[in-house]
Design a protein that fits this description.
Layout lengths: L2 E5 L2 E4 L4 E8 L7 E7 L6 E7 L4 E3 L7 E6 L4 E6 L8 E8 L14 E2 L3 E6 L1
Parallel strand pairs: 2-11
Antiparallel strand pairs: 1-3, 3-8, 4-5, 4-9, 5-6, 7-8, 9-10, 9-11
Length: 124
Amino acid sequence: QVQLVESGGGLVQAGGSLRLSCAFSGRPFSSYVMAWFRQAPGKEREFVVGIRSAGMTYYGDSMKGRFAISRDNAKNTIYLQMNSLKPEDTAIYYCALDGRYGANLYQKNEYEFWGQGTQVTVSS
């Protein structure tokens, strides 16, 4: 059984930084896509950033420059470094994984496995 566990959320002032972690366990994947999504109250779940097992990264329109994804293959963990946070970044952040390398990683419906989410709150 595949499990994704996020951590690192919290309360931060505008302009501050946070680093989220997502550790995955369970059956090994020869190839995969992983991503961070976020969902603010009353809004659709939104793509933030994704990474393919070969290392290519993809960013949402408003994320590049402030957010960065990285991974530690030895720890089966991906990270989301968020800088210059704004109040509109407040949301629950979810980690997602799918074992199909060719999945459309921008689309939330493409992902088979999800974490439980971690709350990020940015105060003004």
